[in-house]
């Protein structure tokens, strides 16, 4: 005889009043009842597992609240602790042991050739947190959630990937709960051979895929971008995505700053504190700011100064890494400049950009000096997560009496100072990669060209509403991300067409207005019928009907 208990398990029933309640509100209440960021992350991850459709509905309706959990800053905690908070397999791990049969591993991914976008990390530099090895997977998952929420990419076409090639972080190798391969990272030759097989296999198994490289350590970030960008449909988010988003914010910031100082835009001088993949990637993209005004590359380069852990980067320094050479100064004669205050006194920058991972590197003296040199100094502390940010927003406002033009990598709340409320910008590549990806996918671009990246930046810079401009913002409000991504995608498609790398002739025949409609029509929306069947085994994107039976899998 079947007991009452087991029969209830076999046929779970929805509570009688359930249909009249808003499950999204219930989820939000459950989320808000948790007071620890990591607990919220675990809750959301579980919700996605139980009912992905509902998860995306809640995310889309509450982006300002939820993005900082799925993405920076909390995703940093999730990665750092991933081996300990791990609940279930998610994403795709390709390990060094898979060398020789990577194709077979990729073929295990359920959506196969229907896949459109992969975010691939090797976990070697997650945000500013260093080598987290196999714990890096949540960064790929978080970025893809932004593709889904921000651009409307269909969830089932996304592939989060972590390449597990080992880790050089001893504490993980010593941790009995560490989920990754227990070995040190390979040398250059072994890694190159792995990456070549991986990329070849990716194209074979997922022929329509765009690959976003994410959070590779700096040398490898530049190396694999150079190696693969003309061969595959791929880009590096930290170099190119960050470059584009900062160019966009900088265009708007420079206008505000020049309006206050009366100095021409061509006279901006930009000081980069941090010269890794992000610092140099952004510096290279900011050449466009000057070149678009008619300056030569040499003139543009001359407006940019870079600093690393040894101080102002000069060409006479011995053993300079390859990626630092382009901006190394040849015009400075004198003893090495190592102190940031001395460097600022020497350069007299109008803008100070932080991509150093050094918490509070922009001290009160530094910020005040920038304020004394500029009526409206541009200060962008862009390192992630917040715990590594070069200066907090409230301090930057206070130390400049509210004159700072500010954008940070991770989000800050508005600040009230002397009776006025100031709103910060968030200079994070999340504003730009969803639109770049959407455009590249719809154009069926063979490659991601420099013009596609540059046009994406310009489109974002031009997207401020009158109200946003009047408020002094340098980036549009995040709540508009879907519309922004569609507009960015449009310019990316047009740039792909101009560079003749597009393979979707349909887009060529549409006017801008029709193309925008086409892009918006392609944006995936979660369905508002989101009742779950309560099955502990449901793990996809479901639409479920009123009697609790899954009727459609997206
Ligand atoms: N806002 C955004 O959208 C993005 C932000 N980032 C952030 O940028 C940061 C850097 O990333 P990567 O360039 O890939 O890392 P990285 O480790 O290659 O670069 C760090 C750079 O800072 C320099 N540095 C370290 N200590 C210093 C010190 N005391 N003084 C001056 N310079 C110092 C290093 O020499 C190096 O050049 C990370 O925190 C990352 O989260 C990265 C990509 C996007
Ligand atoms: C935002 C990002 O891509 C990073 O901090 O690495
Ligand atoms: Mg990154």
From TrEMBL:
Catalytic residues in the record: 71 (proton donor), 143 (proton acceptor)
Record keywords, A-Z: Metal-binding, Oxidoreductase
Protein name per its UniProtKB record: Malic enzyme
Any Gene Ontology biological process: malate metabolic process
Family, as annotated: Belongs to the malic enzymes family.
Cited InterPro entries: Aminoacid_DH-like_N_sf, Malic_enzyme_CS, Malic_N_dom, Malic_N_dom_sf, Malic_NAD-bd, Malic_OxRdtase, NAD(P)-bd_dom_sf
Species of the source: Tricholomella constricta
Keyword Metal-binding carried by entry: yes
Cofactor comment text: Divalent metal cations. Prefers magnesium or manganese.
Keyword presence, Metal-binding: yes
Gene3D superfamilies membership: Malic enzyme, N-terminal domain (3.40.50.10380), NAD(P)-binding Rossmann-like Domain (3.40.50.720)
Cofactor (UniProt): Mg(2+); Mn(2+)
GO function terms (MF aspect): malate dehydrogenase (decarboxylating) (NAD+) activity; metal ion binding; NAD binding
Entry GO CC: mitochondrion
Recorded superkingdom: Eukaryota
Binding site for (S)-malate: 125, 384, 428
Domain Malic enzyme N-terminal: 48-229
Matching SMART domains: malic, Malic_M
Residues reported to bind a divalent metal cation: 214-215, 238
């Amino acid at each position: 005889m079947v007991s009452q208990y087991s029969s209830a398990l076999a046929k779970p029933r929805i509570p009688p009043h359930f249909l009249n309640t808003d499950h999204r509100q219930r989820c939000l209440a459950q989320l808000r009842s948790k007071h620890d960021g990591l607990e919220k992350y675990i809750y959301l991850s579980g919700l996605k597992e139980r009912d992905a459709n509902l998860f995306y509905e809640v995310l889309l309706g509450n982006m300002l609240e939820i993005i900082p959990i799925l993405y920076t800053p909390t995703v940093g905690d999730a990665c750092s602790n991933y081996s300990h908070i791990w609940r279930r397999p998610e994403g795709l791990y390709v390990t060094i042991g898979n060398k020789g049969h990577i194709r077979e591993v990729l073929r295990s991914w359920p959506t196969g050739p229907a896949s459109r976008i992969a975010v691939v990390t090797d976990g070697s530099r997650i945000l500013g947190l260093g080598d987290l090895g196999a714990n890096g997977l949540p960064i790929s998952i978080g970025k893809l959630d932004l593709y889904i929420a921000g651009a409307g990419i269909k969830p089932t076409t996304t592939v989060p990937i972590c390449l597990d090639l080992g880790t050089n972080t001893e504490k993980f190798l010593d941790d009995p709960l560490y989920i990754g391969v227990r070995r040190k990272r390979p040398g250059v030759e072994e890694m190159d051979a792995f990456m070549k097989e991986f990329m070849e296999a990716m194209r074979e198994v997922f022929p329509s895929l765009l690959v976003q490289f994410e959070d590779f350590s700096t040398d490898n970030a530049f190396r694999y971008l150079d190696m693969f960008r003309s061969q595959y449909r791929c880009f590096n988010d930290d170099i190119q995505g960050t470059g584009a988003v900062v160019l966009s914010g900088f265009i708007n910031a420079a206008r505000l700053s020049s309006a206050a100082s009366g100095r021409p835009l061509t006279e901006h001088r930009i000081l980069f504190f941090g010269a890794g993949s992000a610092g140099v990637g952004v510096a290279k993209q900011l050449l466009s700011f000057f070149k678009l005004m008619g300056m030569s590359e040499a003139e543009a380069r001359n407006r940019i100064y870079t600093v690393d852990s040894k101080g102002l980067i000069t060409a006479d320094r011995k053993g300079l890494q390859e990626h630092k050479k382009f901006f190394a100064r040849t015009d400075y004669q004198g003893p090495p400049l190592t102190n940031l205050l001395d460097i600022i006194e020497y350069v007299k920058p109008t803008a100070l950009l932080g991509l150093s991972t050094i918490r509070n590197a922009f001290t009160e003296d530094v910020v005040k000096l920038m304020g004394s040199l500029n009526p409206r100094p541009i200060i962008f502390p862009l390192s992630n997560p917040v715990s590594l940010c070069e200066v907090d927003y409230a301090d930057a406002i206070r130390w400049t009496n509210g004159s700072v033009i500010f954008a940070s990598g991770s989000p800050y709340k508005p600040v009230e100072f002397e009776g006025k409320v100031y709103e910060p910008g968030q200079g994070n590549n999340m504003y730009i990669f969803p639109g770049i990806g959407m455009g590249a996918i719809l154009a069926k671009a063979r490659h991601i060209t420099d013009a596609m990246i540059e046009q994406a930046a310009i489109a974002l810079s031009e997207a401020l509403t009158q109200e946003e401009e009047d408020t002094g913002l340098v980036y549009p409000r995040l709540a508009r991300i879907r519309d922004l991504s569609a507009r960015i995608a449009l310019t990316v498609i047009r740039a792909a067409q101009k560079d003749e790398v597009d393979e979707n002739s349909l887009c060529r025949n549409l006017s801008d207005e029709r193309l925008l409609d086409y892009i918006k029509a392609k944006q995936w929306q979660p369905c508002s019928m989101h009742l779950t069947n309560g099955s502990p085994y449901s793990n996809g994107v479901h639409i479920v009907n009123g009697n609790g039976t899954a009727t459609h899998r997206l």
